[in-house]
């Protein structure tokens, strides 16, 4: 019994320490992300081409020049901004250096009467400047099956988008931060319609603190139960007898 109690107490205490360590790692990563967001604007020529290099540039600001590919945008469903349901609008931008990158152009609310009704968001023609920040691929949500053909998608699958739009995409996305300076017209109105109050990266550090507390409580409870049932209670029984 003593060996079993010591083993359980040690293992649960070690798990609590591991959760504390994970929390510290995520706090350091969150501080690094905020530092990147405040860093000088990244040069377009320095944009990553590989997944590993892209991770080192996440949340860095950049202003790129290129041309929107003349394809229909994709609307990512079940995305929120300021607590409201709607769509993230995705379009491919061909950079001047030739690469094609996925741009999260902004967010639009869902039509409450007809979910399938989508706004017309024409793209500016010719060369455009896009002020953005480097970001991971849009997060994947739980899906019951494959996305149906059409502009509304549950997730932005890289292979599916490459088949839809044609060229392969870089292994990251750009979150547009401000409207592109374009001439008046439908494209200019679309730039103003899109909302771009992107949430700050959240790493859910608090859950590790809660898990650590739970494991430490389990460890303490194991020691307490052993002391009560193996030491205190037998003595009380002998004293009563």
Automatic annotation (TrEMBL):
Where can this protein be found? Cell membrane; Membrane
Domain of life from the UniProt record: Bacteria
The annotated topology with respect to the bilayer is: Multi-pass membrane protein
Question: Signal sequence span per UniProt?
Answer: none
Presence of keyword Manganese: no
Q: Which UniProt keywords apply?
A: Cell membrane, Membrane, Transmembrane, Transmembrane helix
Residues passing through the membrane, by range? 210-229
Q: Which Pfam families does the record associate with it? A: SURF1
The answer to whether keyword Calcium applies is no
Q: What is this protein called?
A: SURF1-like protein
The organism encoding this protein is Ideonella oryzae
């Amino acid at each position: 019994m003593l060996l079993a109690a010591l083993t359980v107490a040690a293992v649960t205490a070690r798990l609590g320490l591991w959760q504390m360590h994970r929390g510290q790692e995520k706090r350091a990563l969150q501080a690094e992300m905020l530092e990147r967001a405040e860093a000088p604007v990244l040069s377009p020529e320095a944009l990553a081409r590989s997944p590993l290099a892209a991770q080192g540039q996440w949340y860095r600001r950049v202003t790129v020049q290129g041309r929107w590919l003349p394809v229909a945008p994709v609307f990512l469903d079940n995305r929120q901004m300021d607590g409201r349901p709607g769509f993230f609008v995705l379009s491919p931008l061909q950079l001047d250096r030739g690469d094609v990158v996925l741009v999260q152009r902004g967010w639009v609310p869902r039509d409450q009467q007809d979910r399938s009704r989508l706004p017309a968001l024409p793209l500016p023609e010719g060369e455009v400047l896009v002020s953005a920040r480097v970001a991971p691929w849009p997060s994947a949500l739980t899906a019951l099956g494959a996305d149906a053909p059409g502009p509304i998608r549950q997730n932005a699958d890289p292979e599916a988008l490459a088949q839809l739009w044609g060229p392969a995409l870089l292994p990251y996305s750009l979150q547009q931060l401000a409207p592109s300076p374009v001439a008046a017209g439908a494209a200019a109105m679309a730039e103003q319609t899109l909302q771009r109050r992107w949430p700050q990266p959240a790493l859910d550090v608090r859950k590790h603190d809660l898990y650590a507390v739970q494991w430490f409580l389990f460890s303490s409870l194991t020691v307490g139960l052993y002391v009560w049932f193996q030491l205190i209670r037998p003595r009380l029984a002998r004293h009563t007898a």
